[in-house]
Amino acid sequence: MDTQEPAPKVSNLACVDPAASLAPGVEIGPFCVIGPKAKIGRNTKLINNVTILGDVTLGEDNLVSPGAVLGGEPQDVSYRGTDTKVVIGDRNVIRECVTINRASEKEDYYTRVGSDCYFMGNVHIAHDCMIGDRVIIGHGSMLGGHVHVDHHATLSGSVAVTHYGAIGCYAFIGAAGRVLQDIAPYMLADGSPARPRCINIVALRRNDFEQPVVDAINEAYRLMYRARVGLSNCEEILKSKGHLIPEISHFLESVAQSQAGRHGRGRELRRKAA
Fold it and tell me: If both were cysteines, with which of 45, 65, 66, 129 could 27 make a disulfide (CB 3.0 to 4.6 Å apart)?
């Protein structure tokens, strides 16, 4: 039986640097431009007119649509040409005209995207962003530099997240939301500026959170954002009700980090360090 893996398929109309690394099964469509430091994993498909610049690692089984630009220099006036990177995981869908910029020199030298994400058309992911797994970002949304988006978060269309912001796991941001402060895990946020309005019950149910966990998260939301009892009192009340489960501990830690930062963004402390 022939077990030989399929060779990459490269259109005669594509421009691929000979130094680029193409794994078996890769498909490069017409008018793509692939630089010498690109590393593209098995069965990833670039439909056409895709540009990969600089040091970009693109994992397996990704689909990249026309007009996408991966690995462009950071749009940061302080950038001085350091050889920074973009690392993208597996099974992502990157739709038309998405831009994912390389990192600056200010943090870890990486812009990272996890696996199983879906980025709709015209999404912009700026330098030094860190995106978890199974993240959905709607059409025209923009992430400023150094933004972190945790696993299973969803951003609707035309959402703008300011630099050094953080969006917690299983959070949802409503359309045209202007995210100026961190959004805690499990919350549904909306408005301009975006504020938590309720828990993201749809995501919790879709991901099989048990009802006692959902109830505990809902109580944490009520205490923090409706009753406004404060973080320490919220923790004590939740503890007295037996709600200090791992999900609630994660929620409280995220809120504490945000409050310890500047302007409601815990990661602003990294900017000061930089």
Answer: 45
Q: What is the pLDDT of residue 6?
A: 92
Q: How far apart are CA 44 and CA 57, in angstroms?
A: 11
Map out the domains of the chain as residue ranges: 9-146
pTM of the model: 0.96
What pLDDT does residue 274 have?
Answer: 56
**Residue 190 annotated in active site:** no
- Given the residues 29, 132, 144, 145, select the one marked as catalytic: 145
In 3D, which of 87, 90, 109, 89 has the Cα closest to residue 100?
87
What pLDDT band is residue 96 in, cutting at 50, 70 and 90?
very high
pLDDT at 1 over 70: no
Catalytic residue among 124, 127, 148, 152: 127
List the structure tokens of 268. Answer: 């602003």
Please name which of 164, 167, 189, 165 lies closest in space to residue 177, comparing C-alpha atoms: 189
Q: Are strands 148-149 and 130-131 parallel, antiparallel or unpaired?
A: parallel
* Residue range 9-146 in CATH 3.40.50.300: no
Its sign, for the CA torsion 255, 225, 161, 247, is: positive
Q: Name the token pair of 198.
A: 């309720």
Model pLDDT for residues 150-193, shown as the tens digit of each residue:
999 999 999 999 999 999 999 999 999 999 999 999 999 999 99
Which one of 128, 146, 151, 163 is the catalytic residue? 128
Give the DSSP H or E segment for 219. helix 211-221
- Catalytic status, residue 165: no
Is 145 one of the catalytic residues? yes
